[in-house]
Amino acid sequence: MVAAPDAFSPPSLPGLDDLVGYALRRAQIQVFQHFVEQLAAYDLRPAQFSALAIIDDTPGITQAELARGLAIEPPQAVPLLNKLEAMGLAARIRSKADKRSYGLYLSKAGETLLAELRQVAARSDAAATANLNETERSQLLQLLRKVYTHAL
Fold first, then answer.
1. Is the sign of the CA dihedral 126, 131, 134, 136 positive or negative?
2. Residue 81 β-bridge partners
3. Three-class SS state of 122
4. How confident is the model at residue 2 (pLDDT cuts 50, 70, 90)?
5. For residue range 79-135, what is the model confidence (pLDDT) as tens digits?
6. What is the DSSP string of 99-114?
7. If you placed Cys at 76, which of 8, 37, 53, 72 could pair as Cys (CB 3.0 to 4.6 Å)?
8. What are the distances in angstroms from CA 45 to CA 10, 25, 131?
9. CA–CA gap between residue 49 and residue 110 (Å, rounded)
10. d(Cα 120, Cα 34) in Å, to the nearest integer?
11. Backbone angles phi, psi at 13, to 5 degrees
12. 20-125, which class in CATH?
């Protein structure tokens, strides 16, 4: 009887293996899926975690600004924020300067949960990149940032 490998190893795919986009997507699937599994215990998805982190870093941010930060269309932010509000993690508060606008803020429960989720994210990230040493991990982050900050 042959033992099953610990992880799926895709076959060599001529024409795809040398494409950066293909490699990025394969890595993204692996890292993302691991994080999704970790967040399931909190009934949250990665975009909701990212929204909490962005709101925490920029209290009072508008829904449109949050959507830009998440790289989503503004209407997509509505159900995301509705869930965070329903869970008691965030609130929309009317702006005193512009009564037509609402700022986004974390509740105390949101701040507390986010502190825990940041640890979950760090552990998930470390597990997903465990086959890299610290220099490789740092270099990978630097190169990925270079790609997405200078995108077409």
1. negative
2. none
3. helix
4. very low
5. 999 999 999 999 999 887 777 889 999 999 999 999 999 999 999 999 999 999 999
6. TT-EEEEE-HHHHHHH
7. 72
8. 26, 18, 25
9. 10
10. 11
11. -125, 90
12. mainly alpha
Count CB-CB contacts under 10 A for residue 90.
27
| Residue 3 pLDDT class (50, 70, 90 cuts) | very low
User: Would you kindly state where each structural domain of the chain is located, as residue ranges?
Assistant: 20-125
Q: Residue holding tokens 């962005």?
A: 54
For residues 115 and 56, the answer to whether their CB atoms sit within 8 Å is: no
CB neighbourhood size of 35 (10 A): 20
> Is 103 buried (19+), middle (13-18) or exposed (0-12) by CB count in 10 A?
buried
Structure-token pair, residue 51: 């929204």
Give the number of residues written for the chain.
152
Residue found under tokens 């986010």 = 114
For residue 84, give both structure tokens. 């965070």
- Which pair of tokens denotes residue 29? 């699937």
